[in-house]
Amino acid sequence: MLRIMPVGDSMTIGSAGEHTWRYRMWQHLRDTLGAPFTFVGPRETLHDPATGLASSHEYAEPAFPRAHLAGWGEGWTHMAPLVGEAVRTHRADLLLVSLGLIDLGFYTNADQTQENVTRFVREVRAANSRASIAVMPVIPNVRAQDDADFAAQVTRFNTLLVGTLDALADPQARLLLVPPPPDYDIALDTYDGTHPNARGEHAVASAFAGSLAREWNLGEPYVPAVRGA
After folding, report:
1. Does residue 3 carry a pLDDT above 70?
2. Given 3.40.50.150, 3.30.750.24, 3.90.1150.10, 3.40.50.1110, which CATH number is that of 2-139+154-216?
3. Residue 14 carries which DSSP code?
């Protein structure tokens, strides 16, 4: 069975009332992968906006495997020290990673964030030398639209990320850069300029699924007929 670990910040953990791109991805793989798989990780919570804390909420579809390694306000700098143990304990084969905005916004500049990406990949490989990692750059968000300095850091980090993944390439432990959704529009795909709404959830899941299918022949491309459904 393929064991997939979603890794991310607030856009990945999601909050109460959201489906999350993790859920959209699971639905797509369930219907198209043609092989057993599950989601794994040390956490199963959503973010509760009423309390500001992680909280357990039931999904409408009980079969959804809610496990992940994601946290509200967490980035590469937080996940790099945690990911090795998470991969080792939960025997992850494939990591789907969406991180960076939090780092650049609050903790590290682009070059420091790149260093944490390197540490993250090395920690994963120390835990599972054959684990595959698919990484999405920082996607469009309202802060990058309104803050020129932050936008410059995002651009630099996304550029550094390409070189970092190339430098860390290993045929035994695959790395994949997942291009952001090509038509992602923060006015249409988010509810606050940053966090995906239903349309945005489909867009992020589609970007991951398309890259996995195209580059690694894993599953099929995902083009929702109605992205807002």
Report:
1. yes
2. 3.40.50.1110
3. -
